[in-house]
Amino acid sequence: MHLLPSKAISAGITAPEATIATMRYALRRIAVVLIAIVIGCLAGLTAAARPFVDGAGRTVVIPERVTRVLAAGPPASVLLYTLAPGRMVGWVRAPRPEEKPFLAPETHGLPGYGRLTGRGNTANVEAVLALKPDLIVDVGSTAPTFVSLADRVQEQTGIPYILLDGAFAKIPETYRKLGELIGEPGRAAELAAYAETTMAEIAKAVATVPEVDRPRVYYGRGPRGLETGLAGSLNTEILEIAGARNVAASGAAGGLAAVSPEQVLGWNPDVIITLDPSFRRAMAADPLWSGIKAVREGRVYQTPTLPFGWFDSPPGVNRLIGLRWLAGLFYPSLFKQPLGETTREFYRRFYHVELTPQQVEELLRDATGEAR
């Protein structure tokens, strides 16, 4: 037996008709509630999203809360690790055994997923989606090629993808931008301030050295040392900042380029910086190189690479310690603080590790000829 609404009875409506009217009334109420819920959700989504203008001028909508970040390439990976290792979803390349002692233990087991950008891209859309990042970050060139890549990956994955300028001078700004974006403004301000102080102190000291007295330097990459950075290259920009003259910058501007032994011999650099230990050994043993001033005077140095290169490889925020190293090599009388102390401080602040004396010695052995 149905209980009829009093209004239905008074209107002379039969039981079946009253039941239908009641059901329609209930459905209308449900529809109103659902519409309110949908509007509320949409309003919440709008409030939770915020526009961000990246280094390439792209406007990207970012979630209000970012907890999982994927780095598109090695420079971004180093930036993110130094700023907020707890927000990393993985490494572009998983750390090698020799690198792990120089990295925070909690990051050793993070997966390697490959790189989305640069030479030797290995990541794919499936790998990116599997890690469920809130944000993809790339740091480096903001040229059209990389803008196109960012747009394409963002469209394919539905994940916000930002580009940040990788120029060395932009490091403080880059830290602050990413810190605000992922909710780490205090930590970002600390690292940005360190970068600004380091750059300012070195610029002030180097400014006292006349151009003619600045060393002419060759940077050799690879086992033969015959790849280098031209004028305007991200890979060699800290040479000039450290007060040196890049011998390969006298020609055309560009990025990395192959050169011949004859070119290096013709340049006759005062100092040679190398990334590869086999090239450093060859410079000392091969008669081909014996006439170069840097070789004759024993001024061939190998850049430290643990856990990241100090000069390059990648050309990221890791170059901050490299800048101090180079400035001290070129002008030891202007930089009195022992490099070992500077190294320990940098690794504590940026890499989240406390170095042992043995680790400091390992890092500096071939970089200076002595541990300091």
Keywords, separated by commas or semicolons:
372 residues, alpha/beta, four-stranded parallel beta sheet, 14 helices, 11 strands, 44% helix
Please provide a written account of the structure.
The protein has 14 helices and 11 strands. The protein has helices at about 5-10, 15-50, 75-85, 125-130, 145-155, 170-180, 185-205, 235-240, 260-265, 275-285, 295, 320-330, 340-350, 355-370; strands spanning about 50-55, 60-65, 70, 135-140, 160-165, 215-220, 225-230, 245, 255-260, 270-275, 300. The strands form 4 sheets. The protein has a 4-stranded parallel beta sheet. Strands 3-4-5 form a 3-stranded parallel beta sheet, with helices on both faces. Strand 4 (about 135-140), helix 5 (about 145-155) and strand 5 (about 160-165) form a beta-alpha-beta unit. Helix 6 (about 170-180) packs antiparallel against helix 7 (about 185-205) and helix 7 packs parallel to helix 12 (about 320-330). The longest helix is centred in the first third of the chain and has 34 residues, at about 15-50. It is globular.
